[in-house]
Amino acid sequence: MAELSQQSSLHWEVALAAAQAAMAHARQLNIKVHVAVVDRAGLELAYLRHNDAFLHSADIARDKAYTAAGFGFPTSAWLGILEANPAMRLGFPQRPRLVVFGGGLPVLVQGQCVGGIGVSGGSEAEDEACARAGLRAIGLESD
């Protein structure tokens, strides 16, 4: 009988290491953020926040990670996708938990999406830089 699935999974300790590195990078940028790391099903494996980070950034970070894991590409890519398709531009942003701005990155292992990391609390560029620092800390690079 053929094996149906040979998928890697993201371990919680690796997720925590990525979240800690993202938090440390935010500290270097002098911003206060929330960081969420999810598995490929969008379920939270690690979550950290700086004291006094914006309250609404908690859910935004989680949703950025969820969106990146669900589609396998950075949340910042959505702007280009939506600009090219008017129907998607009207419908997709209405979807619960879909984030269409930067700060969420997929966790890719040998081209396979095993999760996502989302950061919220700074600018889009700062959030994405923190997420990239999280990926670098676990030996991964993002595109």
What's the layout of helices and strands?
Blueprint lengths: L11 H18 L4 E6 L4 E6 L7 H15 L6 H6 L2 H6 L12 E6 L2 E9 L3 H14 L6
Antiparallel strand pairs: 1-2, 1-4, 3-4
Helix pairs in contact: 1-5
Keywords: Transferase
GO molecular function, one term: transferase activity
InterPro entries: GlcG_carb_metab_protein, PduO/GlcC-like, PduO/GlcC-like_sf
* Count of individual helical segments: 5
Strand order of the largest sheet: 2-1-4-3
Question: What is the share of helical residues?
Answer: 40-55%
User: Which secondary-structure class do the elements indicate?
Assistant: alpha+beta
Classify the oligomer. single chain
Main beta-sheet strand count, sense and barrel state = 4 strands, antiparallel
Number of domain modules: 1
GO molecular function, one term: transferase activity
Keywords: Transferase
Protein name: Cobalamin adenosyltransferase
InterPro entries: GlcG_carb_metab_protein, PduO/GlcC-like, PduO/GlcC-like_sf
Overall description:
It is a single chain. With 143 residues, the protein is of the alpha+beta class. The chain has one domain (12-137): Haem-degrading domain (Beta-Lactamase, 2-Layer Sandwich), CATH 3.30.450. It has helices at 12-29, 57-71, 78-83, 86-91, 124-137; strands spanning 34-39, 44-49, 104-109, 112-120. Helix 1 packs across helix 5. The longest helix has 18 residues, at 12-29. The chain is globular, with a radius of gyration of 15 Å. This is Cobalamin adenosyltransferase. GO terms for molecular function: transferase activity. Keywords: Transferase.
